[in-house]
């Protein structure tokens, strides 16, 4: 008789570097908004449910910025600075009137959330939206008073608070009940609450680790696509005609190791312990990537289901039983060896894209039915395990009450079922070490099992070509720099090597998002040249991609498989 089916929820938390290299101001607010909503809620839900367990992955580029926000806001509240380096937070604290530029910015920025789930649920916030739409239609925006914009920026931040915060925090409840005419003190109190939430994230997660309810993992520092850093030819293992640069990325192995080691240091500084597991950026892996992770001290890593399909040269979904997906595999030899888990695309994508549209109880029943099917197919296996791996921040705004009822019932349903067991990857491996060997891992990622999201078309490949040129300049000038400038330059290089720039390039993504990331990427590259004392190439004044598509979920999330 086999063991209970081990069920692992792996929530991936990630944001790229949004801080503008030239001004020091944050170009986009997603770090602190998701921190006060999703990173807070996801931890609090675990804390409140007896016997709940999960794994969370925090990318260092995210935790670095959370810490920066928290320190900067605390300095502002303590009177050590009069400036706030995020425009939305600055407007929340603002006392003076709003000029035309500010009004236009706020009318664009303060409705960027799920309208049905998190705006229209509040009558006062919904009224502000309808007033703004009416003013735009009859060209009377100038007649909206300063009080309108004060209330608007306050409501935006109230709507972005975590559900657990809105329910349990006195300041949040008081302001939501007040509904409007927010005073300077009201907004100061809200700013203080946001600061507290940001400051508490590391300690909140440490408590969960210490109680055995959470395993925390990391990703190489700035979220680089390591197989491509190591060898662009890895893209051809799954897409034979992918367009790639004519030359390799200079010093790719050393750069990959730098991101790995920097991530390990950062994780220990923030959370107080070494991470045993790693989610390679975008689950992008190849044999050499896993060897670097293994020799760097990681016990396990995870990637997408389709990588296993390609590696075994078979569609596991068409196999009788489909058992190969439900156990870890050993990859590599000797000190390079590492255990690798593979994402169940179907279950993960149901959580990410489908269940938000369902009645909560129906969604839970369907999920449990899916688990029962896996349990049936894995009968006779010694220790079957299913890995549900997904974005831990972008899906929840599409759910009722930021998924608090759904996730609470989801954890409880699995906990209470006698044939299922919630666990973590490290706890699982301690009881059931991987034994089956995967002789060759086909390079790919969690998205379709290939690397086409980051390379292969003109825009994405052009972005790599610009990075290659910048890395050549880095190699030529680095040694001549002062120590402090060297540190700044290598940090700037790490930022430029992140995956998010190429993620957004492509005509299938929305124009405004592509524009933001195109501009930010080229600004980061320009800053690197400036730190190196090198002339900035004119090519960095030319846009890389324009977008124009309507990607599902706004492009922030993708499905693991084309047919998921």
Molecular structure report:
It is a single chain. This protein is α/β, with parallel strands linked by helices and 564 residues long. The protein folds into three domains: 5-18 and 24-63 and 207-452, 7-stranded beta/alpha barrel (Alpha-Beta Barrel), CATH 3.20.110; 68-202, no CATH class; 458-549, Up-down Bundle (immunoglobulin/albumin-binding domain-like), CATH 1.20.1430. It has 22 helices and nine strands. The strands form two sheets. Strands 1, 2, 3, 8 and 9 form a five-stranded parallel beta sheet that branches. α1 (30-48) crosses α10 (184-210), α2 (60-77) crosses α10 and α19 packs parallel to α22. The longest helix has 27 residues, at 184-210. The two termini are 31 Å apart.
**Low-pLDDT segments, ≥5 res:** none
Radius of gyration: 24 Å
Structural class based on helices, strands and sheet pairing: alpha/beta
Question: Which percent bin holds the helix content?
Answer: 40-55%
**Oligomer state of the chains in this structure:** single chain
> How is the CATH topology of the largest domain named?
7-stranded beta/alpha barrel
CATH class of the largest domain: Alpha Beta
Overall 3D shape: globular
Average of per-residue pLDDT values: 94
Q: Give me the count of strands.
A: 9
Strand content: 5-15%
Largest sheet: 5 strands, parallel
CATH architecture of the largest domain: Alpha-Beta Barrel
> Terminal Cα separation, in Å?
31 Å
* Domain module count: 3
Quick overview:
With 564 residues, this protein is α/β, with parallel strands linked by helices. It has three domains: 5-18 and 24-63 and 207-452, 7-stranded beta/alpha barrel; 68-202, no CATH class; 458-549, Up-down Bundle (immunoglobulin/albumin-binding domain-like).
